[in-house]
Amino acid sequence: NNQSGKVPVKNIERELICPICKELFTHPLILPCQHSVCHKCIRELLMLNHDDSFDAGSECSLPGSPRSRVPSPSMERLDRLVRSGGGSVTPRITTIPCPGCQHDIDLGERGISMLFRNFTLENIVERYRQAARAAVAIMCNVCKPPQVQEATKSCMDCKASFCNECFKLNHPWGTPKAQHEYVGPTTNFRPKVLMCPEHEMEKVNMYCEVCKRPVCHLCKLGGAHANHKVTSMSSAYKILKEKLAKSIHYLISKEDQVKAQITGLESLINQTEENGQLAERRANEHFERLFETLQERKTEMLRSIEQSRSRRLDQLKGQVEEYQGMLENSGLVGYAQEVLKETDQSCFVQTAKQLHVRIQKATESLRTFHPAADPCFDEFVLETSREETLLKEMCFGGVPDPPLIDLSSSRVYNEANIHWRLSEDSLPTDHHVLEYRRQGDGDDGSTWRSTERVYGPSTSVSGLEPDCLYSFRVRSSRNSMFSPYSPEVTFHTPPAPAFGFLFNDKCGFSTERLILNKRRDTVESVAGMGFLLAADRVQTGSYLGLDYIIGDTGISQGRHFWAFRVEPYSFLIKVGVASDTKLVEWFHNPRDTSSPRYDHDSGHDSGSEDTCYELSQPFTLLTLGMGKVFIPKASSSSSVCSVSAAGDHGSRILPMPQRMGICLDYDACRVYFYDADSMRCLYERQVDCSGTMYPAFGLMGSGKVQLEDFSTAKRLTF
């Protein structure tokens, strides 16, 4: 036990190590979070490994700098640094994570010029260095070789070390130098006065209790600390010194408690080692028993195969010997030929009767030849897939249950956004790994591709090919032990890349009857004042008009796909594409009413289509309403994709999918309508792709359309 309460300098090395370079601090700077970092280390962090630096060539970068700060750079220099960092609008080089507490530290445009040097820490490091190299003397900086003497004093004003004689010569009595401050031999020279980093020529003489840092009188008068509570430096010194002394005294008084806790931790280390070895031995024993069981079953089953093989070979070889006897030069035929030579009738009859039975039997076996044994060993084929699955899923009791992929939240376009739900296991998992493969790449298991570790319940996979089936599965890890895989789920990618757009509230948008949300990815039709004002026309049999809205981005080439949701309660909603060349004329000549009977894609059985009216339309649309999809009659320019949609009226009405998808092939002049969940094509038709084509929607009565996230995600980030 240290009676003096002092800790030897050599025992505090861990407190003097920079958290970045892992070496003794060199000119440490104090971060706003009160952690210290080497000047060179924080400069490298700020400059993102650029050769250029905020404070390159500044006086603070010199070991003997008398200043406590680094001069701020000019704005031109800052702009140049930002441009060299990639042209980002916001200079990323001003924000770093503190290596001590991991909190983000924003140093502003002036960078490390706002930071104090930690002179106290510098002095402690220097004392540590001197203690570590006590045998190495500090030499006089004035003596001329080869008669260089060992230094006995270091002058803080001259920033040099002197032997006794040289010190007297350089600090004669009666001169200003005689008043210089000197200490014992050292290589660490610090300024007498700490200067304010905000105001270069001002000394710090107060302490801000809000920001917990020294400030000067200008900071208090009109600077960043104008409204903060400050105290005198002497008062802050006294208070903090008392607090620190009390804290140190408390720690020293608890030395026995700390030692007991260290002993407890060492005991836990030993227990961990022993228990780990015990668990390893037990696991080995279980595997040895499994190996023994497998070996026993292997021996028994191989013995069964061997016995069956031997029995069959004996039977077949016996049959071969029997048939060998039928040959001319074999025993049976030769014996029969000798019997035929017998001239005594009674003797012949006595012998020939039995011989004839044998010959007849051999003849019959020739007519009905059948092998004595089956060479096929199909009944001995071993099916081990179930056992292999069980072995792969074999795990410790602490292994997490497999997660489940959430089909309702997952979406797959050109990239997949897969979500999963964790099991109700209360223990947290370390990470997850998502695996995926394209169906048709083979089923040998080697085609599965894995993502990086995922620490949340979802991840994205990019680079998926269009119009393909992809399988996904996920598993969790806890303490380096993986759960079994989740059940595989399959998604069909769209037939074309996802097209991103938002609703356009400028082109023909009806502010009276249509409502857009702030994100412009949802449009809703409401029966408001306009509906009430049209009540007289409704009574006379006229129809309400469709309110149209288009996307804010157009298509002039290639294949594109977008998806959306239509609320099931929607009365009548049309979805498809519109041509900009016809939209101008259309909106210059608005129509109050549009009878569904004459809307060529309305889905109503209107008999013959009005060809002239169809050609004048800017829209190519499919009708949805009240939870149904109305498939138009097939014409020369259209075809019904759905296997359930035939020519009769009833089969042209399909249940409305949860998500609808549209694919426009601009170059082929065709538009396709899909069930976006199964990627089943419901209907396709030819379309006049003149000019630029836009996603288009028409709403009548109450209804709501919401674009899918993948159609809007990239747009909403800007």
From TrEMBL:
Domain COS: start-end pairs: 340-397
Fibronectin type-III domain: residues covered: 399-496
RING-type domain: residues covered: 18-60
Keywords, in A-Z order: Coiled coil, Cytoplasm, Cytoskeleton, Metal-binding, Microtubule, Repeat, Transferase, Ubl conjugation pathway, Zinc, Zinc-finger
GO cellular component terms attached to this protein's record: acrosomal vesicle; microtubule
GO function term, MF aspect, one: ubiquitin-protein transferase activity
Domain B box-type, residue spans: 191-233
Keyword Metal-binding: yes
SUPFAM superfamilies the UniProt entry points to: B-box zinc-binding domain, Concanavalin A-like lectins/glucanases, Fibronectin type III, RING/U-box
Record GO biological process: acrosome reaction; spindle organization
Subcellular location field: Cytoplasm, Cytoskeleton
Start and end residues of each B30.2/SPRY domain: 481-715
Similarity comment: Belongs to the TRIM/RBCC family.
Protein name, per record: Tripartite motif containing 36
